[in-house]
Design brief:
19% strand, 10 helices, 9 strands, alpha/beta, Spore Coat Polysaccharide Biosynthesis Protein SpsA, Chain A, 41% helix, four-stranded mixed beta sheet
Length: 295
């Protein structure tokens, strides 16, 4: 049975020893106290499991052989008892009022709503580099928000609060060749196949850490290409009429974009194709932030 107000936080862990303790402390020191925390150790070979065990009186630990990100998340999803679910990275930091703000906001929305927020970017030492503002599409209906998702609208999954009830519809995390896209694939299926609504809370509620070796900052060019394949795979679930309606409206949306936004998108593709990884990371943040502000 789901608790009326509990938030279940799932943290997939794989060789995360460098930032894990700080991340866990930020999760456990929330002003909102009706939480449960599941940490899934996905075959770590560093000191991650020992760190988790030092928090054993405050968290639930699931230890499994390495099976990948989607498997770790699904193991957590199958165990949660909260009304809401939160996926969080062991690299990142929650501000103390993160959960409190998200719960307050989600209670004002329909039951099938995923809440997400803005976020701050920090470096390996925890120094704030800049803030990241998501596009505010709160005034759009589900269909038109889905067009933005199909266009590649990215939501930082670490900022989200997700109603656990949507998992009763059969939604799970898909195992993909490109694990970077697990969250994007999930959001697309939630929006297009399950008519889930998305709502932005315009506050920065987490610190997203950028560091060497980070999965989400590797093979950026390849992942951008895989976005299109993920989109096409999900659209294949529809009949031809519905699929063509989405594609027609996506084409119209892209055609109506301002010249400045088209230029930014071209710059993003060019920079990720030609520049070294260290520069690409900085350019990626620059272009995505600019594109959201010129939506």
């Amino acid at each position: 049975m789901r608790s009326n107000n509990k938030v279940s936080i799932i943290i997939p862990v794989f060789n995360s020893q460098n930032f894990l303790e700080k991340s866990l402390n930020s999760v456990l020191n929330q002003t909102y106290t009706d939480i449960e925390v599941f940490c899934i150790n996905d075959g770590s070979t560093d000191d991650s499991l020992n760190i988790l065990e030092s928090f054993a009186d405050q968290i639930n630990i699931i230890d499994q052989k390495n099976q990948g990100l989607a498997s770790a998340l699904n193991a957590g999803i199958d165990s949660v008892t909260g009304k809401w679910f939160k996926w969080f990275s062991p690299d990142d930091i929650m501000y103390p009022e993160n959960i409190e703000n998200l719960v307050k906001e989600i209670k004002t929305q329909p039951d099938n709503t995923i809440i997400y927020s803005n976020w701050d970017i920090i470096d390996e030492k925890g120094k704030k580099l800049r803030s990241f503002s998501e596009s505010n599409y709160n005034d759009l209906d589900i269909f038109n928000f889905n067009i933005r998702l199909l266009d590649g609208q990215q939501i930082n999954v670490n900022t989200t609060l997700i109603p656990s009830s949507i998992f009763s519809t059969g939604l799970r995390m898909n195992t993909l060749i490109d694990p970077i896209l697990v969250d994007y694939d999930f959001f697309l299926r939630a929006g297009l196949l399950h008519q889930v609504k998305f709502h932005l809370l315009e506050k920065s509620l987490i610190q997203f850490r950028v560091h060497e070796g980070q999965l989400s900052h590797k093979k950026i060019t390849e992942s951008l290409k895989n976005l299109e394949k993920t989109r096409d795979d999900i659209l294949s679930n529809f009949d031809e009429k519905t699929k063509n309606n989405y594609l027609k409206n996506l084409k119209i949306f892209r055609k109506k974009k301002s010249f400045s936004k088209k230029l930014l998108e071209s710059g993003l593709k060019l920079s990720t194709a030609l520049l070294p990884n260290s520069t690409t990371d900085r350019m990626l943040v620059f272009y995505l932030n600019k594109m959201r502000k010129t939506r």
